[in-house]
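Note to self: keep these together.
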Amino acid sequence: MAKTFIRDIKASSFQSKEVLSFFALRRKDLKTKESDGKPFLSLELGDSTGRIDAVLWNDAEAQSQAMAIGDVVQVKGTVTSYRDSPQIRVEAIRTAAPSEYALEDFLPSSALSPAEREAAIRVEMVTVKEPHLAKLLGSFFDDPEFLKSFLVAPAAKLWHHPYLGGLAEHTAAVCKLARGALANYQLLDRDLLLAGCLLHDVGKVPEYRVGTFIDYSDRGRLLGHIVLGDQLVSERMTRIRDFPAELGMRLHHMVLAHHGEKDRGSPVTPATLEALVLHHCDYLDAHAAAYTRIILREGGGTKRWSDYVNLIDRHLYLPGAGADDGAELKLL
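Structure:
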């Protein structure tokens, strides 16, 4: 059976149509209807193209017990609208067998192959000549187990590079931006800057768990990737004999300060030139990639503005949609 994707279901042309397809169960809440006390299930379904809410009224309690979050479920229902957003009114639902679906239908992935993602990281690695930093980078990226996890890890759950391989893509892009800064700011320590760029997000490997959708691990929720990353750097740094104390401290500072502000999760704010440049390169790539994803997803039609983006508290302008009727104000 051909997969029906959520991006298609959300199109206005799909309203009132029947859907029969497989989805990842991202959320399930057993609730009670206020008017008559009847239980119902509020669901969130997902696939590689997005998420959609769903509601199930029949046999809600038994169905809730039969499914677990993270399961792939086959859903039969009708596409309706609730509070101006598309929703699936579920008529039947069951847990699917692994042979019935392809996992890649539920997990978006980098356009680059794993080999291309690895090559982009190694291109940056080989330019780091300081011997202690080079050994530290090798302890991460020459470790087959770590490298395998790093190359498939996402960079985020929702905001930027939220797909398999996103972390490696983001890391390589931050390095490229930082190399551009080297031409402008002569006091930058080149090796330290690139080592910090390569290692700043290694904590995202244990921060996320990947199943039928990307979610936080327990360690990720409790500690966060900045703390986890600093722990990983500390553990591997102690294995390198005579690692210079000041060099290690400056690298730790880069990892801990790369979000820039304490209210954005950094335990400390950038106090070195390398930490400052890393922060801005990280911020630029994360936000530019997220903007690009939203523009590509919502642009290309007649819309001039994206849906409201809660995380950044704004709509995004969608170029190329034609002139705005109110763009010119004629003064009399």
